[in-house]
Amino acid sequence: MKKNVFLQGVRDGLPIGLGYLAVSFSLGIVARNAGLSAFQGFLASLLNVASAGEYALFKGIEAASLYIEIALITFVINARYLLMSCALSQRFDEKTGLLARLLVGFGVTDEIFGITVARDGYIEPAYNYGAICISVPLWCIGTALGVIAGNLLPASVVSALSVALYGMFLAIIIPPAKKNPVILAGVLVSFALSFCFTKIPYIKEISSGNRTIILTVVISSVLAIIKPVKGDNPQKNEQNKENNKEEAAK
């Protein structure tokens, strides 16, 4: 049974991994510009597994930012995974061990979170293992290949490939912004304030990393207070499903 569930995870994780391979290749170009080797880029992707977080990491290294500054900005940008992990924690069977929970939490990404919550019932760790074991290695390999390509290709080509990552970020924010006015407002406000912060006296003297940390925390906090997201209780929903099945059987 577990083997079948694992293979289902591999099946669902393969298209995600192929997408990761293309995206992380562009991220590898950024890592190369920051002076990282292919192995260092591979290791950074293995330990981070987050496009925005790694981009902030590589740009911080390129700008010679302080260690604490790089750590803070990476933490803030990746904070959404804490929320995803908390949401998934409500879907575990009580018998699920700590190690299994930690392994599932390690592999939480936007896409893997999406395919996990789409499944009915409790989380089956074997499913996530399958998705992780195919998607994460492809993510890491793509980063390493991007670094290698950046060292071999002409500077003009490397510069052009560096722009591809910005296209990925636009592809991430535009669809949800079109559907949700709150997200659209957050995106527009962040664009405007990011520009203003580079022009306002004294504030523009703050490093780009600290400006990003301040804007991320302030804007997300204000929007969370003004327009909180109302979520469902997974355990309650699961109990309701069981009750409905019992009633149907009667």
Describe the structure concisely for a colleague.
With 250 residues, this protein is an all-alpha fold.
- Cα separation of the termini: 29 Å
Q: Classify the beta-strand content into a percent band.
A: under 5%
Give helix and strand order, one letter per element, not per position. HHHHHHHHHHHHH
Largest sheet: none
Mean pLDDT: 80
Q: Can you offer a commentary on this structure?
A:
With 250 residues, this protein is mostly helical. The chain contains 13 helices and no strands. The longest helix is centred in the N-terminal third of the chain and has 32 residues. The radius of gyration is 20 Å and the shape is globular. The mean pLDDT is 80.
Which descriptors would you attach to this protein?
mainly alpha; 13 helices; 250 residues
Write the layout of secondary structure elements.
Blueprint: H1 2-33, H2 38-48, H3 51-62, H4 67-77, H5 80-89, H6 98-106, H7 110-117, H8 125-152, H9 155-162, H10 164-179, H11 181-197, H12 208-226, H13 234-249
